[in-house]
Write a structure and sequence with these properties.
Strand order of the largest sheet: 1-3-2
Radius of gyration: 21 Å
Strand content: 5-15%
Largest sheet: 3 strands, mixed
Order of helices and strands: HHEEEHHHHHHH
Number of helices: 9
Oligomer: single chain
Distance between the termini: 22 Å
Length: 219
Amino acid sequence: AGLLIALIFGPQFWIKWVMEKHAKEQPEFPGTGGELARHLLDRAGLADVKLERIDGGDHYSPAEKIVRLSARNFDGKSVTAVAVAAHEVGHALQHQDNYAPLMLRQKLAGICIILERTGGVLLMATPVIFSVTHSPVVLLAELVLGLGILASTVVIHIFTLPTEFDASFKRALPILEHYLKPEDMPAARSVLKAAAFTYVASALVSLLDIARWFRILRF
């Protein structure tokens, strides 16, 4: 149980620790994360891509063509702020280049939502179907199908990891090498690595939903 908990929550704690470690304000930085993001977007000819400060997590929405940064990273002058901003702009650059893995991830994201909802409905209906059919075979088939659908969402999240690494290390890292001092680059690499693993951490937490359904369905 301890190993399972470490596997599921360890990456999230590590990501938060890395982000906090390098979030110290550095007034000598020429601009905030938001200012850097706007500059990079305009320099790349992406003036049509909007930039928003939000209360939630940092992300780029290809459907809306919006880079969204948390208030702390939007307004912050820290390695974390500028590295996360560069990472999200990296996704906008991928979109500009019609980067195939990003396009695939968008399709998979829509499928993932449908699968999660379908899997949840199937699992909630399991007791009712069993009470009507009294068939262990039907019960087992539905359980396997429902849990398989939920588990597939974890696989989809992990499958998108190459997109995150491309945004961090092939797009953002070369940019930051021109904007940060050499002594800040090790911290920037750590933040970019943490940003790349954010989706994996979310996928692992999704495993808890599967475990929860196992407990609920022990009837």
